[in-house]
């Protein structure tokens, strides 16, 4: 009986609490899908300019990942999560003066601060989930949390769209008939619609921070974990002596870029095809739903039926297939292929993390921070999509997805095994991570 209670306290309860945090991650992150078309209208932006929403949010991960690792060493994982939630609350409250002044730069500042808080939360929560259970089922645990994340991601744009773009098509049409003064007043009114939703989010984030502080979360003994170094004939002196980690960082960079493009551009893509805003505003949610399907498959199949590496390989191949479908079909069929990127993306993040962290020993905290920095792919690659869409077309811009999935496929086939940069050095199969 006591063993059961200990198991619940040490494993199940932390998973429930972290699951709630992942729900918050997903809700805040995937609001960007509706914020991009919303701010494009309210601040009168081009596609390229509007994609700075994603840039400001995700570049914070690169800038703040290493400082986050330092903060966690000072505060511990639990207090670090609390601080991260409160930093996010500062970011959401910045939306109020941004909306009142309808100043795009202030909106972007709020998004950067929110990304900073999430960088701290992600740096703590992802290795936390990897460490608290068996390594061979780490992708399964992260998949369970991914369901919480993407379920929130499916809800978020629909909820926010209800408050800020419920009359989107009629509003855009009415702007065409307005003189300059009326147009300015209408756009100011549109910008003000985000104030109440973001006040609510601020309150929720503050309360969540208090809840995490009071919750019975066990503190992870990272020193104990870091001493479990894989056997090697070479002493590693730098984080850059781990090729499988560095290549994993690059794979995550391309993955996050592909994920953000799939979720944050699909509404604009639908609009560019002539689909009404009242219909297109739900498209980000469709992408999230396909991701949830992918996560459910991961929970059901990993590690008993398929390995984490096989899931990664299959995901990359599906991504290439869906990219061709998005580029070479037309109309709503093409939009469906973009939504299906969610299915291809679902298991990439949970599969790469344990593969990349395998055998890092005392470098695990720095390795985790580098993987978090790879989230900058969500800042940079969508901007490339935005520029390509302005220069060519929104559909042709999806060619950017092809090199992303090709590199992920390389990592699944070869990259994760490389343990030395020296040519001819024997690769190591990460048995403890990929075993069924």
TrEMBL record:
Its main location: membrane. It is found in: Cell inner membrane. SUPFAM superfamilies: MFS general substrate transporter. The chain crosses the membrane at residues 12-36, 48-72, 79-98, 104-121, 142-165, 195-215, 245-271, 283-303, 310-329, 363-385, 397-413. It is a multi-pass membrane protein. It comes from the Bacteria. CDD domains: MFS_FucP_like (cd17394). Belongs to the major facilitator superfamily. FHS transporter (TC 2.A.1.7) family. NCBIfam families: gluP. This is Glucose/galactose MFS transporter. It comes from Marinifilum caeruleilacunae. The gene is gluP.
